[in-house]
Amino acid sequence: MTMADDDHLLPECRGLFRRSLFIVGEFGGNDYNSPLFAFRPLSDAYNFIPHVVDSIGEGVEKLIAEGAVELVVPGVLPIGCFPVYLSIFRKQPEGYGPRSGCIRDLNTLSWAHNAALQRKVEQLRAKHPGVRIVYADYYTPAIQFVLHAEKYGFLKQTPRACCGAPGVGEYNFNLTSKCGEPGAYSCEDPSNHWSWDGIHLTEASYGHIAKGWLYGPFADPPILDTKHLG
Predict the structure, then answer these.
(1) For the chain, which terminus, N or C, has the lower number of CB atoms within 10 Å?
(2) Which of 47, 48, 42 is nearest to 28 (CA)?
(3) HEC states along 73-117?
(4) In this model, does residue 9 exceed pLDDT 50?
(5) Going by C-beta distance under 8 Å and a sequence separation of 6 or more, which residues neighbour residue 152?
């Protein structure tokens, strides 16, 4: 491609960017998993937060520089509620939420990341007033799935994977028999579970989250904000 070709295509690309909705993430989960699964001190994961959040901000700004004007920036999930973490990081009774059964300090890590990311989103909005940047919340709906499971059509039970190793543990998760591996089976109806394999959500969970992002209340502002569209 010659420089002339590049110059000719650039306006077309910028126009495409202006008509597109960008979902920037969710980023950060694997960055925190690296020290956590190596059993490093929790403080090592906290030390990553400013770097992860700054990197997300830089990615948003690069997209804006290319012409993007509609971006959705998701936070991270409450990892302390997921069977993989509940199975690996055993705690004393006081280390779990009394209502949720989730691991307190891991959820606090997720909350700290999300708080820092929301501050970054506010900074980006102030810097780019002509750009619409939506903060999308994964944390709240996932907590709601645990605390108010029946409201969303899920079974009221200990956080439990649909696809796992039955009989191995209370969370239906085993590192040696993960979903798709020998010894693992899926539940009869994935739609009544919020956790698919102990690591990822089910299609039903993502459906509830998607509606909350589109119409509220799990996005600030909702992607289909009528005031914005009208």
Answers:
(1) C
(2) 48
(3) EECCCCHHHCHHHHHHCCCCHHHECCCCCCEHHHHHHHHHHHHHH
(4) no
(5) 144, 145, 194, 204, 205, 208
Residue 212 to residue 209: CA distance in whole angstroms: 5
Q: What pLDDT shows up at residue 5?
A: 43
pLDDT in tens, 170-218: 899 998 899 999 999 999 999 999 999 999 999 999 999 999 999 999 9
Q: How far apart are CA 225 and CA 222, in angstroms?
A: 5
Distances (CA, A) of 5 to 11, 67, 79, 176, 198: 11, 19, 47, 53, 49
Which string of DSSP letters, residue by residue, matches 1-54?
--HHHHHHHHHHHHHHHHT--EE----SHHHHHHHHHTT--HHHHHHHHHHHHH
Which amino acid is residue 100, in one-letter code? S
pLDDT digits (tens, 9 = 90+) for 127-164: 999 999 999 999 999 999 999 999 999 999 999 999 99
Q: For residue 143, what are the β-bridge partners? A: none
Domain ranges in the chain are: 1-142, 148-215
- Give 165's DSSP letter: -
pTM: 0.91
